[in-house]
Specification:
single chain, 451 residues, alpha/beta, six-stranded parallel sheet, globular
């Protein structure tokens, strides 16, 4: 099989390639095509992947080619993995600065920052979806591009059910809490429901029994994993659920905004500076074998250790534990998804897919994040119990915002873009919304289409 990776110069590409190196089954990926607009990043990443293949000692490692021609990259693809970043990390850092100057959150997928990122990304994602439909109509698309829910819904307008969104947050959360109750993650059914970066674990079923009430009653267990420490045992018991870590931005918004404003550097600025150093080092000619991979490993370790540092500061929980430093496993989700579709190996995965009739409070086209059964015909959402009212409020409010982003990107309407900002529960001011859009338009040429 041939896998095309859009954003092939991106930092997390080695995670996907590493997962492919461990797959030796019939019908596996034999060729990987990296596509990126930045030839220098492509060259650096190709060196890292070559080091990976050599270190793994795999004689039949998937062949890697790189190109800056999108149609060439897509032609003949069986699967397309989309992980682009419109505006790069400089754009992310600007999103954070503009929002924080207005006293609101600028995180890349939540609040004002997520809206700005979506307004830049949706037009590009739609064009990519059209190119895929024309050039590789039989390909399945796995979307990891953020904001993943909005982008998956935008691409689904062209590709229907052949685009499926993935995220590592629910995967990591499910794995951590399953182990806490003594179960192997693959033996637990995680009752998870919501939107991307806005979901809750409402049940943890092992051997036909829901173990979540037992977990919620155990202070020691709740204090032993990332989400338990972030939210605190009392709040988790009040909810009767374990929220996705990104809900910390909602439940502790004022505290988090204050911490981000007081930080020496925003997350986007930190990653921008960190990755500049990495790509300069990995792309340097004449390096010894293994040097590029070693640089990537060091950079990744620092990246993971500092993840959501401000949120942990607000919660007073200190540095991340070793168990929290494990990758959420999105590369394993991508591989399991490809296997299930290509080989009809049925799997159950938490994915971003069209709602259909799964959540009655949303329409059929809305992309939601829920457990799905996957087979050769794609991903099929599993029926879930209705959301409690507090969750209905957040899910429907944020979905309304996502729809305004999609509408603004399609029409170029400034009014729709302002409405998206103003309706978001973490902005809640029309005046601030207008100033945010003006601020973003001033720093992002890609928003010139809004009028």
């Amino acid at each position: 099989m041939r896998l095309t990776i859009l954003g092939g110069g991106g930092f997390r590409v080695p995670l996907v390639y590493g997962a492919l190196l461990g797959d030796h089954a019939e019908g596996r990926v034999t060729r990987v095509v990296l596509y990126d607009e930045d030839a220098a990043r492509l060259g650096a990443m190709a060196r890292v992947l070559a080091d990976q293949a050599a270190a793994a000692g795999v004689p039949d490692a998937p062949a890697v080619t790189a190109t800056t021609d999108l149609d060439e990259a897509l032609r003949g693809a069986d699967f397309v993995f989309s992980a682009i970043r419109v505006g790069g990390l400089e754009g992310r850092a600007a999103d954070e600065r503009v929002a924080l100057a207005e006293g609101v959150l600028g995180q890349e997928t939540v609040g004002a920052g997520g809206i700005a990122y979506g307004l830049r990304t949706v037009p590009v994602a739609r064009e990519i979806a059209r190119r895929i439909a024309r050039t590789a109509p039989e390909a399945w698309v796995i979307n990891f591009t953020n904001p993943a829910g909005i982008v998956t819904e935008a691409m689904a307008e062209e590709l229907g059910g052949r685009v499926i969104g993935i995220c590592d947050s629910p995967v990591g959360l499910g794995r951590r809490i399953a182990r806490l109750v003594g179960a192997r993650p693959q033996d637990a059914w995680i009752d998870y429901v919501g939107l991307n970066h806005l979901g809750w674990v409402r049940g943890l079923h092992v051997g036909g029994r829901d173990e979540l009430p037992r977990l919620l009653a155990d202070d020691g267990a709740l204090e032993s994993f990332e989400e338990g420490r972030l939210f605190g045992a009392e709040w988790l018991r009040s909810l009767g659920a374990v929220p996705n870590e990104y809900l910390h931005y909602y439940y502790f918004n004022r505290d988090t905004v204050r911490a981000y404003r007081e930080a020496a550097q925003t997350r986007g600025a930190f990653l921008r500076d960190q990755q500049r150093g990495f790509y300069a080092q990995a792309g340097r000619p004449g390096q010894p074998a293994g040097a590029a991979l070693a640089a990537w490993d060091r950079t990744r370790a620092e990246r993971e250790a500092t993840y959501m540092a401000e949120n942990r500061e607000v919660a007073g929980v200190g540095e991340r534990d070793d168990s929290d430093l494990e990758s959420g496993g999105y590369e394993k989700v991508a591989l399991a998804l490809m296997r299930a579709i290509a080989r009809d190996e049925r799997a159950t995965l938490i994915l971003n897919v069209r709602n259909g009739s799964t959540l009655s409070v949303l329409d059929a086209e809305a992309v939601i994040e829920v457990p799905c059964l996957v087979d050769a015909n794609g991903a099929h959402p599993v029926g879930v119990a209705p959301l409690p009212l507090h969750a209905v409020g957040l899910v429907t409010s944020v979905k309304a915002v996502e729809r305004e982003v999609l509408g603004a990107a399609a029409s170029g309407s400034r009014a729709a873009a302002v409405k998206a900002f103003a309706l978001h529960p973490l902005v809640d001011s029309v005046g601030v919304a207008r100033r945010l859009l003006d601020g973003y338009a001033a720093v992002h040429p890609g928003l010139a289409y809004l009028r």
